[in-house]
Amino acid sequence: MPIPQPEKGEKEEDFISRCMGDKVLNKDYPNEKQRSGVCYSQWNDKNKKKGAAIMEDIVTKENLKTAYPEILGLIEKEAFEKGLSEGAAKGKADGAEAERNRIKNVEDQLIPGHEALVNELKFDGKTTGPEAAVMILKKEKSLMASKLGDLKSDGEKIKVPDVATVEEKPKVDPAVQLEGLVKEKMKTDKSISYRNALIEAQRENPELAKEIYDQLEKLREKK
Question: Model's pTM, two decimal places?
Answer without folding.
Answer: 0.34
